[in-house]
Structures are given as C-alpha cells and as structure tokens.
Amino acid sequence: MGIVKSGVYFWQGNEACAEAAIVVGCRFFAGYPITPASEIAEHLAWRLPQVGGIAIQMEDEIASIGAVIGASWAGAKAMTATSGPGFSLMQESIGYAFMTETPCVIVNVQRAGPSTGQATKCAQGDVMQSRWGTHGDYSAIVLSPNSVQEMFTLTIRAFNLAEKYRTPVVLLSDEVVAHMREKVVVPPIETLEMVNRKKPKPGDKAFFGLEEVPPMPAVGEGFNVAVTGSTHDEYGIRFTADPLVHRRLVERLNGKIQNHADEIVDVECCNIEGCDVGIVAFGCTSRAVYDVVEEAKANGITVGYVRLKTLWPFPDEIVRKLAEAAGKIIVPEMNLRQVYYEVKRAAGDVAKVVPFNKIGGGELITPEELLKKILEVVRGRD
Amino acid sequence: MGRTEIRICGLGGQGVVLAGQILGRAAVYDGWNVVQTQSYGAEARGTTAKSEVIISESPIGFPMIRKCDILVVMSQEALDVNVKDLKRGGLLLIDEGIVKDVPKVNAKVYVVPATKTAEETLGERLYANMVFLGVLNKLANLVRDESMEKAIADTVPKNAVASNLLAYRKGRMLETFTLLHEFFGSRSYVGNEHLSPL
User: Fold this and answer.
1) Which CATH number do you get for residue B70?
2) Is residue A260, in this structure, part of any structural domain at all?
3) Which residue of chain A comes nearest to B61, CA vs CA?
4) Which alpha helices (H) appear in chain A, and where do they start and end?
5) In a domain, A334, yes or no
6) Is B53 helix (H, G, I), strand (E, B) or coil?
C-alpha cells in the first residue's frame, strides 16, 4: 500500500497524523513509545517501509530527536512523536534543531503532568513548554489541532512550515484529539500544498545566512557543510565569543519566524466583530465551544470566539479584535492558566479576561460548565 | 437534528474499545458524522474501560457523552458506574453471566448471554463484544447490517475476520435474551428513531 488515496476514512487522530506525514513526504520516523502518542510510532512502523521509508524505535526520546535531526540533514523529511515526559527530554535537541536550522516535526500528544502524571488522561499543560522549553532566545511554531481531520491537515502544514522556514515545528495535540476516531476526508493528493526545503545551487557556500532562510544541502551531496549548535557564521564556522556574529545569527533565526507571523498564524473565528462575550480556546477544549455558541444564543447571548489553530506565534491582533468587540473574554483550558496570560497580554486593558481551568482525570470542560461560566461573566458575577 | 449516543463499557481486555470502533466505522460507511472516544486505565487489562460513539446528522462539537441513549455493560463495576448516565427511556444491554445486580431504571433493559454465546460458539469469551454488536444492531438498527460486517472485516486482523463475523451473526440471531424491564414512560426507545432514514 502506497500513499493513502483520496476518500473518506474513519481514523484515530494518531493514525490521521501518521498517514498525513506519509502524504507530505515524511520518510523517516524515530521515536520511543509513550501513551498517548504510541499509535503514531506503531502506525508508521507498519506504513513507512511500504513507501520506502524508515521507522526506528530508539532507546529513548533524546536519541529519537537526535536521529530525526540526523535524518533531516541526510535529506529526509523527518518526524518524531511523544508526550510530556518525552517532550521534556527532547528540549535540548529542539534548541539544537532551531540553531542549526533543521526542518523537522515533533508531535506532542499532551497528557496530564507534571512528570508521569496521569499517563492515559488528557491535559493541555504543555502550551508554555512548547514555546519556552528549550534554553536561549528561541521562537517556536506550534500548531494545535482540534479534530481528527485537523490531525491530518495540520500535520501536513507542520511539515510545510518546517521546510519553508527551516525550523522545528511542534504539533501540539492532546489525548482526546489523538485517540478519538472521526470521519476524515482526504482530498485529491495533487490539490494539497507540499513545500520542500530550498536546495543550494552548485558552488553555494552560505547555508546559515545571507538570506533569511538559506538553502539547505544534505550530507553527501558534495557541499562541505559543518553543522554546529554553537554560534556560527553564514558558512557554518564557529564564532563562540564574537558578539556581532551571535547577534546576527540569533536575531535572524527569531526574525524569520516573527517577521512572518502573519503568514504562520491560523485561527478559526466566529462573531468577533460583535458579541456579548468572547472565548479563546484551542485543542479538545474548543470542541465544547461549538455547542455553547448555540446554547448561549438560546439564552439571548452572542458568543464570539477565536479558536487557535496556531498557538505560537500567538495571534495578538485577532485576540485584540475580539477583546475590543466583546469586552469580556473567557479562556477555558485544561491546565492551571497558560493561554490565559497570553490573552490578557494581547487584550491589554480593553477587555476583562477570565480564566476557566480544569485539570485531572482527563475530564473535559463540558458545554454545560462553559455555559454556566458565560452566564456568570455576562451577568457580572465574575 | 438526529443524534444517537451509545456507551459500551466493561473491563479492559473485553474489547469495548474495538466494539465502539467497529460501530463508528460502520456509521461512517452509512454516511453519518461520528465521533468515537474511549477511556481506559494505564493497565493493559482489568480496570474499567469505556468506549463512546456519537452518531449524528450534523457535525459533532463536544465529543464526549454526558447522557447516553444506549448503554451496553459487560461488567458489574461498569454498570454501577455508568447506569446513572442512561437517558430516561433509553436502552440498556447487560451481560447475563458477568452482571449480577441489575438496578431498577427507567429504560428498556435486556439481559444478553453474550459471554456465554461467545464461549459456546467460539470457545472464547473475548468474542462477547461482537455478540453484543449483533444484538445491539438487531434491537436498535443503528447501521446497515452490511456496513457493520464490512466494518468488522476492515477493523480486525485478517485471520480473525471469520470468527468475529460469526460472533456478530450469532448475536444478530440470538433469541434467548430477555426483556427484563420495560419502560412505560412517555418515551420508549424503539430502534434508531433519532436518525431519519437514509
């Protein structure tokens, strides 16, 4: 069986992610099994050899991300998948991938932490880790699917962004979205956008600068390329004390993401021009919002929402617009306040931002709980 | 808006997740919107497990079930925990051998010898989930029979298709299950009344 054919499928989120990776050209996977991400490794171990790819179970997550970075430098589109504990172990090398401009995709299917926490239970506690987990000045691209369909489409987008900007991209899913099964429509493959990294021309020597996103050779193609996580100039030569070289490199690495935030940011909006109350939600939690819009309408309340398909870069402008229209924003999330502070920052003083948090046992915030909160906020009791 | 919510629960290892998966896949073959979710412990078997299927005409937002139309239980513990979530007038299917204590509920309650049938027919109690799918589809007519059979064939390993289909068909043909408790309220669950015909 080759690449999946266009059609309607009944897939688990993790399965949709794995099939999408194959569609977009991923031919290398390295990972270490962990609930609730194991099905991605399992599925790719079965499927990748069928399309000429390689899937390896490594000894741990540190080795997994290392192998992925190596495969990317060998010219492959490469991916790993893990959950909180493994994502923690990968942080150093995610920084290395950022510094060496190595395109790769890291799937983090969130479960309840800290530490091993509740391994099989859903949570959304890794929002800030996905942004700030590695050390140093870093800019992250983090996507947040809320359906099995989006496990498919956003996996493709994650690879496209990684290849376009030559940077690691995180697909931040959660146990519910990754484990639930839904109808997935796979469009004709030729209609899907596929981005491949820019390759150097013969004679090119600058693979780490001169352009915002420089071309990337693969090892063995005849370009003498040195790859280092230490500060380096445009040609890959280490400069571990020069202030200007460091400034130039790290500012460009952050700039190539921050300067293109408008192209990267992706949100789903409803009633953001005029509403009585706003909601900013993402991932599994955002599913309750769809129900609540209808139920609130029955109570005479117009709910506007911004659903974050990209968590990072954060969509400041759109959230600000919602804040201006709504005056009150509720931020439901399955953690103890993470996106809340971002919404507060983006909203400034134009809206009152109300956190709504729930953790433990994988229990989702239900439409009933959210509606109750909306009524409290609108009627001024919170 | 047509919508039916089904919860199948029991112990880890009884195949409740697989049963939900097959039912969900069959409903997708019939053209419905479907969400199937599951919940299980960190252990491979022995702790409570549940599988939920929402079948709907319109897109499905919140993916979890708060109140179900149909509850299938394969262990006493699962019954104790889940019976409160069954809608008034809903349908309750319980395994004859494994569930001893049946509470009085405002629902149509059927006692099904699923485990017994699986053991007698195939020598393995692990096919009880397929027997249940057969009984469930006979009583509630959720999906087309051929869709369910296709879903079984497309889901289980190739060398297990025949035995799973046999268990499903046994369930469909089962005559020995008993209506334990009939609901005489305003609404009795008769088949897949929420869904308009295809």
Assistant:
1) 3.40.920.10
2) no
3) A287
4) 13-23, 38-47, 61-73, 84-99, 127-132, 148-165, 175-179, 243-258, 261-264, 286-298, 316-326, 339-347, 367-378
5) yes
6) strand
Nearest to B28 among A35, A183, A368 (CB): A183
Domain boundary residue among A147, A168, A191? Answer: A191
Q: Is the preceding omega at residue A355 within 30 degrees of 0, hence cis?
A: no
Domain contains A203: no
Does A288 sit within 8 Å of B62, measured CB to CB?
yes
B190 occurs within a structural domain: no
Model ipTM value: 0.91
Give me the domain span that covers residue A164.
7-191
Could you tell me which chain B residue has the CA closest to the CA of A290? B61
Question: Is B21 in contact with A181 (Cβ distance < 8 A)?
Answer: yes
Q: Which domain holds residue B127?
A: 3-181
How many structural domains comprise chain A?
2
Residue among A10, A20, A290 at smallest CA distance from B31: A10
pLDDT per residue rounded down to tens, chain A (382 residues):
899 999 999 999 999 999 999 999 999 999 999 999 999 999 999 999 999 999 999 999 999 999 999 999 999 999 999 999 999 999 999 999 999 999 999 999 999 999 999 999 999 999 999 999 999 999 999 999 999 999 999 999 999 999 999 999 999 999 999 999 999 999 999 999 999 999 999 999 999 999 999 999 999 999 989 999 999 999 999 999 999 999 999 999 999 999 999 999 999 999 999 999 999 999 999 999 999 999 999 999 999 999 999 999 999 999 999 999 999 999 999 999 999 999 999 999 999 999 999 999 999 999 999 999 999 999 986 6
CA-based nearest residue in chain A for residue B63: A287
